[in-house]
Specification:
The protein has about 80 residues and is mainly α. It is about 85% helix and about 0% strand. The longest helix is centred in the middle third of the chain and has 41 residues, at about 15-55.
């Protein structure tokens, strides 16, 4: 081995714990970011799907006969005049 290789190996061996700690922190940060992105995508897809479902759901319509109330109110108006 050349002297440069030997020196590089010694320097790498001396800092191996620091290098491994940095690599481990980078892996953990990458995993955390990946999970955060995944959670955002799944949440967005769920919200969009729910909104689509709500928009396409048939609306509930109630029909009532208010003719009796109308007759009553018109009767009140004619009596006061």
């Amino acid at each position: 081995m050349s002297q440069a290789k030997v020196e590089r190996y010694k320097k790498e061996k001396a800092n191996r714990k620091k290098i491994m700690a940095k690599e481990k922190a980078a892996r953990i940060a990458g995993r955390v970011c990946a999970w955060a992105i995944l959670i955002v995508i799944v949440g967005w897809a769920g919200y969009t799907g729910y909104q689509y479902y709500e928009d396409n759901r048939p609306s509930k319509t109630f029909y009532t006969d208010v003719s009796a109330v109308s007759d009553y109110l018109s009767g009140l108006n004619t009596e006061t005049e």
